[in-house]
């Protein structure tokens, strides 16, 4: 399975980088995985609704340019479907079973995802109704994908 995580912005926090790299290393035993960063759009603190949409649009274009045409796209979005770790594992297993070997997870910028990205997605996944920093979502996502592979292989994992 080939998994890409397309995300907006550079990761600056060393503790997050260390955690993500650890899970990417562990995941390499199960799948080919890559993290693709696209630049975030610089914006002032106070934005109009129009300016917010323009920023999401520009970031969305950058995201979509990095998504393989054959990829099954899962966008991380607050309004998406919430799943347990076991349900995510089952979904990834079904995708592999039905020949969807390219999966792209999308993590938007601080303003969220453009309508175009949401329309391109095959599924929307929410980890919580709470808002998390998008940099932290990277770590949470790679941990959950790792956990999903462990579950699917019947290997022990912490509950």
From TrEMBL:
Keyword Membrane present in the record's keywords: the answer is no
Top enzyme class: transferase
Any idea which GO molecular function terms this record carries?
methyltransferase activity
List residues binding S-adenosyl-L-methionine.
Answer: 76, 108, 127-132
Q: Where does it reside?
A: Cytoplasm
Q: Please classify the protein's predominant subcellular localization into one broad category.
A: cytoplasm
Q: What is its EC number?
A: 2.1.1.177
Question: What keywords appear on the UniProt entry?
Answer: Cytoplasm, Methyltransferase, rRNA processing, S-adenosyl-L-methionine, Transferase
Q: Which GO terms describe its biological process?
A: methylation
Per its record, the protein catalyses: pseudouridine(1915) in 23S rRNA + S-adenosyl-L-methionine = N(3)-methylpseudouridine(1915) in 23S rRNA + S-adenosyl-L-homocysteine + H(+)
Q: Which PANTHER family match?
A: METHYLTRANSFERASE (PTHR33603), RIBOSOMAL RNA LARGE SUBUNIT METHYLTRANSFERASE H (PTHR33603:SF1)
Its job: Specifically methylates the pseudouridine at position 1915 (m3Psi1915) in 23S rRNA.
- Give the UniProt family note: Belongs to the RNA methyltransferase RlmH family.
HAMAP family in alphabetical order: 23SrRNA_methyltr_H
Query: What subunit structure does UniProt give?
Result: Homodimer.
Q: Which NCBIfam families match?
A: PRK00103.1-3, tRNA_RlmH_YbeA
In Swiss-Prot or TrEMBL terms, this protein is called Ribosomal RNA large subunit methyltransferase H
Species of origin: Alkalihalobacterium chitinilyticum
């Amino acid at each position: 399975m080939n998994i890409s995580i397309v995300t907006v912005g550079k990761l600056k926090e060393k503790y997050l980088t260390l955690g993500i790299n650890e899970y990417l290393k562990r995941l390499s035993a199960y799948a080919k995985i890559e993290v693709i960063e696209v630049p975030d759009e610089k914006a002032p603190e106070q934005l109009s609704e129009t300016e917010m949409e323009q920023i999401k649009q520009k970031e969305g274009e950058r995201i979509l340019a990095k998504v393989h045409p054959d990829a099954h796209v899962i966008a991380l979005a607050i309004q998406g479907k919430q799943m347990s770790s076991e349900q995510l594992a089952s979904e990834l297993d079904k995708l592999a079973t039905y020949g969807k070997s390219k999966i792209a997870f999308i993590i938007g910028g601080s303003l969220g995802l453009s309508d175009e990205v949401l329309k391109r997605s095959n599924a929307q996944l929410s980890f919580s109704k709470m808002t998390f920093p998008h940099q932290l979502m990277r770590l949470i996502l790679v941990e959950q994908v790792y956990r999903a592979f462990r579950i699917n292989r019947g290997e022990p994992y912490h509950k």
